[in-house]
């Protein structure tokens, strides 16, 4: 009996424990079920919120894009003149480039980045022709120095004229305007600018953009210089356009090919641009570090956009050799003959913008551009006497 009692107690105890275990498992299942049932409303709610935000943002983007497209279509083909400014902010020049023999009568201020290829083009033209000018170095990140202008790029050349200041924008247009003035000093800049209106149009890819009309043309007004034939002028325009449309676009993917090269380039920009004198340290460090990394990223897109070779150096060599072959066909020292023409000055300015970079050193090693480049340097330095710079 005792044994039977003990066995029965054991069985009853096990049965009770099993009931407790089953009860706990049942409660746990109920809790889990309740939890799982509670989740779907949260997921649905979050999904609805996300979808609503997406719809609002998408609608806003679409609305803005539609309005922008409508505005672009409405403005397509319209032309606007670059207006004269009555006054400008009192901005102290970073330095003054003075030529004692300058008799142009022009009073110019160049807003620039020292190593911007388009700014270099303008400086090379001014230096070759011995035209004095003031320089305002612009912070390439913050651009505070050109906040007064609706045109947010450089170069901007301000010319002092009767009644105010005439802004000149786009390096090619600037050079054409100044070239026209040099052909006839009795012409006024504010009158010549009217021949170069801005037109709102589509590019070859259908993208809307503002373009300067006639920017490759000097306004000879049917009075061609005796030493220049029409064929010569057309050829000069062709090479100037090639410099803007082709050559300049192989620079960035080469200069910023790696992060190391990008940082080296920006440190050189800082040295040659005297950033430590013009900008506070935090601003200079921001320009170097942020600028180098940003341009390294951008250069990858530019390589693809302009269909450069996998080895971007080869694309640089090919284009420069194309230029040198053009000179070789003429059998002259420069594209302009015994003296540089507008296309020589443009190409030299563009290449000079990378003179302190590894890409330029490689270019000298792998092409024969050094002969032409050094001859151009000598012409510019000696044509009107060496410049002196007043800081």
Summarize the structure.
With 391 residues, the protein is of the alpha+beta class. The chain has 13 helices and nine strands.
Structure overview:
The chain is globular and about 80 Å long. Strands 6-5-3-4-2-9 form a 6-stranded mixed sheet, covered by helices on one side. The chain has a 3-stranded antiparallel sheet with strand order 1-7-8, with no helix packed on it. It has helices at 2-75, 117-128, 171-183, 189-192, 230-245, 251-255, 259-273, 275-278, 281-305, 312-330, 342-352, 358-366, 369-383, and strands spanning 79-80, 95-98, 108-112, 133-137, 156-161, 164-169, 198-202, 208-212, 388-390. The chain is of the alpha+beta class and 391 residues long. 30% of the residues are buried. Helix 2 (117-128) crosses helix 11, helix 5 runs parallel beside helix 11 (342-352) and helix 7 crosses helix 9. Helices cover 57% and strands 10% of the residues.
Keywords:
391 residues; alpha+beta; six-stranded mixed beta sheet; three-stranded antiparallel beta sheet; 13 helices; 9 strands; disordered N terminus
